[in-house]
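User: tokens in, sequence out, please.
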């Protein structure tokens, strides 16, 4: 009995000592882990196109600063401003692309920035944002390649990068979806290395890309209150006629429908021409100026609907400012590095989506034909146009002078 008790006590004491030593030895590692890894992991969004592979990479700033300077709390903005070349060299050393045949692709750093990001667990944090591009030579398969990536991971092995494809035209990925998850790039503790990620993007078809672009066109108009307001405001007075500087009431169905068609067709021609020119990068323009001009177009349309300014020539206003609205839409297509045939299909699909959305706007505006025959319509029209003009002025202030806007007014 005594021997047994003695053995149990000795074993318990030995286990307690081992546990204490383990805890003491683990403290530095735990502290380092907690200090170095309080933020989310990296995200790599890939674009797979015929002759180009693009990478949009987000890396939490504290993680990258810890690796580059040893201080997770270092000023990331100051580092970006003064060590841009060092950042480029670091990315070049830790990112590599190879085709399926084994050819190394040159990776070019197109842009670097610092932005705020948020995470449900970590809250808001600073994030480095990198845009990289790898041109794919003729004859190489851009949809089958190997990505070697170990930025941050090589020094913080519990860090990892989530990889996905966000853009692949023939697979129907054109940027408004959540993308296709490819996998996780992480440290393999058994192999003591970061294994490469093999990417085999779905080949897809032109039809998949076309259908995706139709949807994208619909989504863009549905989310663009300013574009909808401009067209709807012009259509608001389609059933009316200028009578000595003021608007009449309803002028009949044939008159109204004819004006509906002239206005909408002029807008379609204007914005389709600008959309194609912008998508093929035949025009260069300042996006901020375009957005200000769109708000100005809404203000002019509202003023005209309040009291006739260009009565009988609304189609000219619609066509002229349709060019401006088309340039704004073209920004969604100008970044597509597609062969000429694919780009033409993409533009056609996007345009059909936009036009379909505009037809829906026209359908909603048709009831104006019914209520514009009553005198109360004058008060409705003036009140509505005063509201639209006020909204346009707010947008001009925000876009030209940086006025803050509530979230629901941001388009």
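Assistant: Sequence out:
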């Amino acid at each position: 009995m005594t021997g047994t008790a003695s053995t149990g006590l000795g074993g318990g004491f030995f286990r307690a000592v081992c546990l204490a030593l383990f805890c003491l030895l683990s403290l530095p590692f735990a502290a380092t882990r907690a200090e170095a890894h309080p933020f989310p992991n990296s995200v790599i969004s890939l674009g797979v196109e015929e002759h180009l592979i693009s990478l949009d990479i987000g890396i939490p700033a504290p993680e990258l600063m810890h690796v580059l300077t040893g201080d997770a709390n270092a000023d990331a903005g100051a580092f970006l401003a003064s060590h841009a070349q060092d950042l480029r060299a670091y990315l070049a050393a830790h990112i590599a692309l190879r085709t399926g045949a084994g050819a190394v692709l040159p990776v070019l750093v197109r842009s670097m920035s610092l932005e705020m990001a948020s995470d449900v667990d970590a809250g808001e944090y600073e994030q480095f944002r990198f845009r990289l591009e790898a041109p794919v030579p003729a004859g190489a398969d851009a949809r089958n390649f190997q990505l070697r990536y170990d930025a941050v991971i090589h020094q913080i092995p519990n860090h990892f990068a989530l990889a996905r494809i966000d853009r692949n035209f023939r697979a129907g990925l054109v940027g408004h979806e959540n993308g296709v998850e490819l996998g996780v790039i992480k440290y393999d503790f058994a192999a003591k290395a970061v294994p490469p990620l093999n990417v085999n993007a779905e080949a897809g078809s032109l039809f998949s890309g076309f259908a995706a672009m139709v949807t994208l066109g619909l989504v863009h108009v549905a989310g663009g209150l300013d574009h909808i307001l401009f067209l709807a405001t012009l259509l608001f007075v389609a059933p009316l006629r200028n009578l000595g500087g003021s608007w009449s009431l309803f002028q009949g169905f044939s008159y109204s429908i004819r004006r509906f068609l002239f206005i909408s067709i002029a807008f379609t021609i204007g914005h389709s021409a600008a959309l194609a020119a912008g998508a093929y990068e035949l025009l260069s323009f300042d996006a901020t100026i375009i957005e200000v001009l769109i708000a100005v177009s809404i203000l002019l349309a509202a003023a005209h609907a309040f009291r006739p300014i260009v009565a009988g020539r609304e189609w000219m206003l619609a066509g002229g400012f349709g060019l401006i609205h088309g340039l704004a839409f073209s920004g969604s297509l100008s970044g597509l590095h597609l062969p000429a045939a694919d780009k033409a299909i993409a533009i056609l699909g996007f345009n059909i989506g936009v036009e379909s959305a505009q037809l829906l706007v026209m359908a909603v505006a048709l009831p104006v034909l019914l209520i514009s025959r009553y005198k109360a319509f004058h008060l409705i029209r003036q009140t509505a146009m005063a509201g639209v003009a006020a909204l346009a002025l707010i947008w001009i202030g925000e876009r030209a002078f940086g006025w803050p806007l509530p979230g629901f007014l941001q388009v």
